[in-house]
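Quick note —
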Amino acid sequence: MSKFDKVQLLTIDDDHQGQRIDNYLFTQIKGVPKSRIYRILRKGEVRINKKRVKAEYKLQSGDILRLPPIRVAPKNEDIQLEKFDRVKQLEEAIIHETKQFILLNKPSGMAVHGGSGLSFGVIEALRSLRPKEKFLELVHRLDRDTSGCLLIAKRRSYLTYFHEQLRSKDMKKEYLALVQGSWNNDKNRITAPLKKNQLKSGERFVSVDDDGKPSETRFKCLKRLGRVSLVKAMPLTGRTHQIRVHALEAGCPLIGDAKYQPDVSSNADLKKLGLKTFLLHAQKLSFKIPEDETVYTFEAPIPDLMNQAIEYFQKLENV
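Predicted structure written out below.
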């Protein structure tokens, strides 16, 4: 039986001050369709301080929220989570944790959230591992095959604070990528606008398009390794697949990126490495916390497969 099977009276704390009530209910009641949430709001079954409120009502600290009995779909993910070996490894992948946030070294191959045929991702796994945490939300996202620094807020006030840093571009991100060819230093700043498209299969595909959103990535070549280059990428905007498409625009697509450079899947070097996807690693993340104005920088260790690839191409260059 779910705790929502009977009437609930909840007191809103400081951490949810200013949050819209519909967004609050989405995060608090898992397994209930959004349409159902809006229906009980519209019918007045949800009350704040014994009064009806609309979906856009912003919660105030000390508000008394009344929830009607709500049938919640049973959780099937727990069984699946136990079968997913990497879930238990997430605890070991934590770089830094406080009462307010978690900084995780996300493994390549794990989605940050459920969707697109996946019942769960990093955030669902963390919620399963930390059932006593009342609030766990992604601050930003990484592609499924991208590894490295992923920030998760444990307080809504911190989520809002971090999002403001993202909007003001005060949160700095640095990625490492292995790209094809010899990087041209004349391409160290790419500002091509990006447009997100959806194929008939439902798959997302991003292209350079004058009608796309303004986008900017700064690049720096760290090392040329013969047929490939190791580059640092610093995105100033946060568009879907931004680094991958901007690297392609610069003439040096990520090695192993079959979506944006399909013919690389037949590359003999990639087969020798056992590389089934691209190598993109969110190495550093810098941000402030509300308590002070100090900029904190955290770093995620480079994955073994990326180190092996760097060593492999280094040896080829020296032959």
